[in-house]
Design brief:
Number of strands: 2
Strand order of the largest sheet: 1-2
Distance between the termini: 18 Å
Radius of gyration: 21 Å
Shape: elongated
Number of helices: 10
Length: 292
């Protein structure tokens, strides 16, 4: 599998480079049409383009963009961490014996791919939020820079995302026992260390995987159309902007969940992505169906 992944690196890099060239070429054409002024001119032009004529999706987009999207994102970045804080204080993290037998869970190649995916995805989440909340952050050069970083991170994310999709596709396919895991909330609502039905990846990780990979493709395409401004029909841009924001909300929720689970909910969990090993006790409890 790793030999196959390495063989597709050159082709994937060429595709990403070609996509990037198209994005920035179109970016240059768009910026050339703007009048001289502050760095917020682009964003004003974007909003004017999308909301200028109230056709099929015009009023809907204007309402969502002006009144609801930013409020929902604020709720997400405050309520979700708040819920996890309560979980940490009331139930606390699960502790497993890290001095006993260790199980190799993630080979080096897998860990490297995941690292680059995690870094680029984190930049996407942060800069995406900065753009959504740009008005409250003062707009200007900072938000404009965030936009360029967002585009760059999106292109950088493509390569590790493709690698992860190929590596973990089979392990991420839904299983009947995933339903039980969901009904039990993965055992995270109890302080007891009772085995829960999960293979190499649990149901929560699987949902996040499909949102981040397949959802990421949808986000990349809709984002490309949105920022193209004029490359597609006006109503198409409006509809894609709505899809991009709503899908972004779902991905952000699972991103925050993934970060909490990886850093706080399981004591020492980050070590598995550093060394590739998990304690046998943790595997037997949280990945009871995993064959090692």
């Amino acid at each position: 599998m790793q030999k196959f992944l390495r063989s597709v690196f050159p082709l994937t890099i060429l595709l990403v480079a070609g996509f990037g060239a198209c994005v920035f070429a179109e970016e240059g054409q768009t910026l050339a049409t703007l009048s001289a002024g502050s760095s917020s001119d682009y964003y004003q032009t974007l909003i004017d383009t999308i909301t200028g004529n109230w056709l099929e999706y015009g009023k809907l987009f204007t309402t969502l963009q002006g009144q609801w999207f930013w409020k929902i994102f604020v709720v997400i970045i405050t309520a979700v961490p708040g819920i996890f804080l309560l979980h940490y204080l009331i139930i606390g993290p699960k502790h497993f014996n890290h001095n006993g037998e260790q199980i190799l869970f993630f080979p080096l190649f897998t860990r490297v791919v995941h690292f680059f995916a995690a870094v680029s995805f984190s930049f996407l989440a942060i800069t995406g939020l900065m753009m959504v909340l740009g008005t409250f952050l003062g707009g200007g050069a900072m938000i404009r820079t965030a936009r360029y970083v967002h585009i760059g991170a999106a292109m950088f994310f493509v390569l590790p995302a493709v690698m992860m999709f190929i590596m973990w596709f089979k392990d991420m396919l839904p299983q009947f026992h995933d339903i039980t895991w969901i009904l039990k909330f993965g055992g995270y609502l109890s302080k007891k260390k009772t085995p829960v039905p999960a293979g190499k990846f649990n149901a929560g990780q699987k949902i996040y995987f499909w949102l981040a990979t397949v959802g990421g493709i949808v986000m990349a395409y809709t984002g490309y159309v949105i920022w193209g401004m004029g490359a597609a029909a006006l109503d198409t841009v409006r509809l894609y902007a709505i899809i991009h924001n709503i899908l972004g909300m779902g991905i952000l929720i699972f991103y925050l969940t993934h970060v909490y689970m990886s850093v706080f909910a399981i004591a020492g969990s980050l070590n598995s992505m550093k060394t590739g090993y998990k304690p046998k006790e943790e595997v037997d409890i949280l990945h009871s169906r995993y064959q090692y």
